[in-house]
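S2.1 Query sequence (Aminotransferase class V-fold PLP-dependent enzyme)
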Amino acid sequence: MSAQPDLPLDAIRARFAHVAECPFSGPRIFFENAGGAFTLKSVIETSARFAAIPDNQGRDNDASRALGEIIAKARADMAMFFNAPEGRFFVGESGTELCFRLIRTAVVGSAPGGSVIGSSIEHPASRSAAQHWSGITGKRYISVPHDDATGQVTAEGYAALMTPDVRLATILHTSPVTGIANDVAAISAAIRDVAPGTFIFVDGIQHACHGQIDIASYDIDGYVISPYKVFSRHGYGIAWASDRLTALPIETLKDSPSGNWEMGTRDTGAYATFSDVVNYFDWLGGEVSDASDRRARIEAAGAAIHAHEESLTRALIEGTGNLPGLAELPGVTIIGGHDNPHREGLVTFALRDMPAEQIVDHLNAQGIRTHIRRADHYSGNILTPLGLEAAVRVSLCHYNTRDEVSALLAAMKELAA
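Output structure tokens follow.
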């Protein structure tokens, strides 16, 4: 297999806002991408342009028709990016809100009785929704345990607890705490082997920025992302729903068009900004490959992103130059293990004799932005079994550089000394 080409980092970083400097605190290195990635400059321009337009969709005038065409184009761009030739795309309040809505629709609209299955690795956006609505409808909730050592849940884990009466299964694509991706296609196949007609929902919020989504290969019914984590902005989420999920009784206005998931007037600018995101992946794919097909360029961008982020996380864990990696620090725990091929641009670690808060504060004082994860309702499912009250999350993205990783390792070396 040929090596992946190097990313054109200068050209990439030029397309994003506030790459090297926080507008409030000044120069900094940004390793908090799992909390919200950098925003494309084109997204900022598009947001401002559409915020100024007073017209709504569905009117008999040129502006309204133009807005409708922009939304239609954005949905086509979404279908290309997600590789979803069927089903429907729509936007909502946030990724979490859309997780709840799709899960609620599947649990309430499926046959009475039965059960709902999910895993202990999941973010509460899907796990809380599944547990809440299974309780409301009297469906048993089945929890598949994840592997504490790898930070992953497997197809075999689901298969061991599956029953034919499962009405809904939820899957986390990538964990925002461990950074480890789960094999959605294999888990989906294991679920359908036992319960072919079940609805399958995937939380893709953490996975999306890595550019490797392939809904056509998953055999699922719902997929949700949060665009602010994939170079767009806050204020909306994106959902994909299969035709069979849309055929359930969905919440909509009485006598409105069939299959209309959206309630109220949507922001055309939200749709348009995701076209900016897809255009960015298309551009990047053209920089790292000779592909002439748009989907092939998106796939090439995803492969190059993965290779670059893998190189950065390996340097972070193993060290670079004369700087020791995180794995060499005394008393270190790296969530998901030191050498995990399923890691996606994120390393969460703890030191036995140093509180996570102290580490985050020290790095922040050095102009390096990271994040503390505590054993709370967001991360306790992962940290508590490991005996950790808190850990430090370093979340990278493809626009980060090896020099930035070196700066973090130098700060950690100073702290350890």
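Residues 9-38+296-416 form a domain with the Aspartate Aminotransferase, domain 1 fold (CATH 3.90.1150.10). The chain has a mean pLDDT of 95.
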